[in-house]
Each structure stands twice: as C-alpha cells, then as structure tokens.
Model the fold of this input.
Amino acid sequence: MEMETKLFIAGLAFLAIAIIMKILKKIIYGGQPPEIWFKLYSLIDTAWTALLIASLIMFLFIQAFKIPSGSMRNTLLEGDHLFVNKFIYGLHIPFADGKRVFPMRQIKRGDIIVFRAPVSALSPEEKAKNINKDFIKRCVGLPGDTIEIKDKVLYVNGIAQSEPYVLYGDKNTTYLGVLHGMSDYQQEWESGNFVFLGQRIRDNFGPVVVPEGYFMMMGDNRDFSFDSRFFGPVKNELIKGKALFLYWPLSRIRIIK
Done:
C-alpha cells in the first residue's frame, strides 16, 4: 500500500473516531463533558485534518522520492532526495488505478519519470507479498516509436540518439543469438519475458514498437540499469510523475532537467 493511501486511510480513521466521540459526548455527558474530553477531541480533530491534507497533497501534487540504486548515475546518485511533480501529466483520480485528468503537458522523450514497477519487474518474493515499489528512469520512447539498440547506441525511429547524460560503465558489448523468432520478439518483450535473458540483450536490442498507452524507460547508467529492455514497456497508468527538484544533499540541490 502506498504512503499517500496509508495517510488517507489513517485520516479517515481519525475522522471516524472524532465522529464517535461527538456521539458519545451527547450520550454519556449530555450537556457539559470534562475538560480532558475537549483536549482529546481537539487533538484527534487536528490529527485527522493534517493527515487528510498531507495525503491529498501527496496523492495529487508532490511526492518525496529517494534514489534507491545507481541506475540513473551520474544524473542522479544513490541516496539523492527529490520531489516529484505528480500533476504535470494530469491529476490522479483517487482509487482509479492510476488514471489522470487535466494534464498540463504530455510525456516527452527525455523526461525523468517516477513510475510504479510493472509486475514483470518484481521478484517472485515481491509478487507473493504484493509489494509495490517505484522506479525512476528516463523516457526514451513514446507510443508508436520504433526502438532499437545497436552496439550500445540507441536508435529511435531509425535515428541514432545523442545522449550526453548516458554513462557506459562496461567496455564490453553483449550479443544475443536468435533465441526468439522475429514473429514473437515483440510479444515476448511486451510480456516482460526478457527479464529471463539477463544482460545478454543489454547492448543489442530490438527493433520493437512501443505500444499505444505505453512508454519505453531506460536508466542513464545504461550498462547497469534494470529497465524496459528487460521488463517491457511501462503502462501509462503506472506513471506517477516527473522528477522536479533535487533537495538533498545540499551540495547537489538543483532543478532536474
């Protein structure tokens, strides 16, 4: 369960307690309850209001995020703390499975995006425990784009991409023999089955076409990133927002572009 949902539920719980206390006050004390009653009620009332406001802000507008791994080096480092803009791609509708309304702009290639990990990206243990976790990657492919990687170079719609932010930490280039016939390569990728191929498809991949309603996400630390090459395209509904502002450590504070 995500943090904003937990806060929202906690806020509702405090609201329920406040309502019950109001009812009990009339039943037990009638007109004038003791002073301690008012102090307790005031504390609970403040708590549920604060929790509901905090959950609303986190659900609709801003999310704090901590970089968990080195997949975005050197753009973002392990332990960096940042804020995620959750409304730029549209306001999230509560309990609507990630659906959004009123977008300020559409997702663009090059956006650094936080998204909920697809099921294919989770380990068997995480799936068994119904664990949800967030990833942060760069969008390199939009719906309808043809994506291919040749000897580490990314091609979008047949054009080699200039990616000055990408880090290549392994001088070796990996090659994969034809394990999949061309007829089902796209389907296998979309299904997330390339997670079983490991690093063998890292440097030579595709071509695949990003399906409608999905996006291709890759880490800037290209040789050491677990991303859409392996677990498949990312569904639009899984996207939570765009990385906005790095606020910690202070030596690295900046707007993220």
Notes: The first helix runs from residue 3 to 29. Residues 3-60 form one domain.
